[in-house]
Amino acid sequence: MKRRSLKVLAITLTTALMIGGFTGCTQAKKSNKVGMVVSTLNNPFFVSMKEGAEKKAKDMGYELVVLDSQNDPAKERSNVEDLIQQGVGALIINPTDSDAVANSIKVANDSKIPVITLDRKSNGGEVASHIASDNIKGGSMAAEFILDSLKSKGKIKIVELQGLPGASATRDRGEGFHKVVDGKSNVEVVASQAADFDRQKGLSVMENIIQAKPDFDAVFAHNDEMALGAVKALKAANKNVIVVGFDGNADAETAVKNGEMAATIAQQPALMGEMGVEQASKLIKGEKVEKDIPAELKVLKK
């Protein structure tokens, strides 16, 4: 009888522990705490993203814990582990690197913590929702701005400075741009060359194009860094053409205000942060979220 009683007691205790464990998981998922891991807070773009998330979390009544990865994938993983230990109900991650972040996301997956990525995608792990600017639409917006600005001209000749070959932003921004300009009898893309999203390369590629094909009316650069390099080359050659960039960084904004650039297709990092918290709230509540969510872009002009 004693042995049987002990066996029953052991089964009862095991069951109780299992129930307690499931309850703990349920409580973690319903936590009022949201974790946010940012690639670096040395970049104003990501500071704005953090501030947008903080404002939205406060408005929605969530506690937001933000950790800086300092562009270090090892620190990123450590930050994720730290937030899991703190009992967050959802994780918002702005990856340091699309490949490296996969390991950090798998750590969250193992702990049953839903993950949202911002701006950069992950090439592994299970991500509930990804929030980023619609680069295809942005490329189309740039083309439309150029054509509208030059509509009084007969033939419009455009130079395209492409980003890093193979990068998703290069592919998507180029696709959006060509959707608008290709097939139009009054529009010609006279040169389309890669400058790898780099300001110095934007300068040197633009110099080469000016020498080879000096007759053009506008430049579309896949990011602001290349656009700013192009501006420098155009100034040196005393050429006055429309330059449109992409991103909306501080230097580009100044260049637009000074009339050196006509416009930039501006991303909205604060909006991305806000949207991240909104999706985290849905996941904590057990609601469905969209796999890919585009953040609106805007044309920043003088």
Please provide a brief summary of the model.
This protein has helices spanning 2-29, 44-60, 73-85, 101-110, 135-149, 168-181, 199-212, 224-236, 250-257, 269-284; strands at 33-38, 63-68, 90-93, 115-118, 129-133, 156-162, 187-194, 218-221, 242-247, 263-266, 292-295, 298-301. It is built from ten helices and twelve strands. Helix 2 (44-60) packs across helix 10.
Helices and strands in order:
Elements: H1 2-29, E1 33-38, H2 44-60, E2 63-68, H3 73-85, E3 90-93, H4 101-110, E4 115-118, E5 129-133, H5 135-149, E6 156-162, H6 168-181, E7 187-194, H7 199-212, E8 218-221, H8 224-236, E9 242-247, H9 250-257, E10 263-266, H10 269-284, E11 292-295, E12 298-301
Parallel strand pairs: 1-2, 1-3, 3-4, 4-5, 5-11, 6-7, 6-8, 8-9, 9-10
Antiparallel strand pairs: 10-12
Helix pairs in contact: 2-10, 3-4, 5-6, 7-8
The domain count comes to 2
* Helix percentage range: 40-55%
Q: What strand order characterises the main sheet?
A: 2-1-3-4-5-11
**Low-confidence parts:** 1-28
Q: Output the radius of gyration.
A: 25 Å
According to CATH, the fold-level topology of the largest domain is: Rossmann fold
The count of strands amounts to 12
